[in-house]
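Next comes a concrete protein, fold included:
___
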Amino acid sequence: MIRPSPPTTEGGDELLLEVGHEPWAVDPDDPREECREVARSLLGLAGYLVVQYRPDGALAYSAISAQISQNFTTAVWRAVLQLSAYLSETNGLTLTFRRTGTEPAAFADSSALNGGEGHSWGGYCILRPGVEQAGGHRSVGSGATHYRCISPKQLADSSGGNELIMATLALKDLVAERIAMAELGRLPDGPHDLHLDAQVVLDGVAMDRVSRESRYLATKLAMLRQAVVDGVIRLVKVATKFNPADIFTKALVGGALRVCRALVLGHDIDDRAVVAALIADDGPMAWGERLKAKRTAARRAAAQRRAAETAAAPEQSK
């Protein structure tokens, strides 16, 4: 288990607590510099594991890497230790490939809200999902052959714009996958599925025009539209709670983490109660859908009130 302890002086661990969240100054004689060097070594090892075997740690690795050089704080130090401990304690979870009898499918997701002010988190993956079975369940799928997680500043000015960009990046890797399959004589006759959970992107691709708000993303929309017309991809709406790319956009916990992690790694979801809860919209990721339903109900109630007030106005004038 990787749990390195910070260097101590006469003040013990209080030395780190006194620093707070201010960046540490670079001073070779400062014992805190040993923490920085250990953190860099741990993060380098974590990066190798994430790239080769553990896509479920990609978001944490990307977020920490953006801070460790210029903004190394006690919070970053603790995040490095947490990521290292997580990868060590779950070392039995590795990327698994298997024959599924299904074609590769791409999943893309993004967020303009979870990365903090001015930041966007997004990612995508390509994997072979399991076969649909009775009762709405699927057999165990194969792990992601392509995946990417990025956390740039101001990728786009909306979550829909971010997801559109992620979808085009996923499209490029999906085209590469199709080229490889064609060279092996395994290219199917139909398109491959590209799953998104942003309805605004699906609607934008379906429209023949470009709205004023999305004109700066016109080329991205054109790429997806052309790919659909050429029969390269088919855009599919997927629920956020069953989108494995969601693990690249936010820090998941509980059942949501176990489900997305199993999907992206190609593992069986060992807790069927978790899946049943998510299907029933009682899971930890259902809050977004409940909020949307609440807002829709509020808008309908407001429209009914306005209609009632309009109908009552002529009676009052009489």
Residues 1-26, 277-288 have pLDDT under 50 and may be disordered.
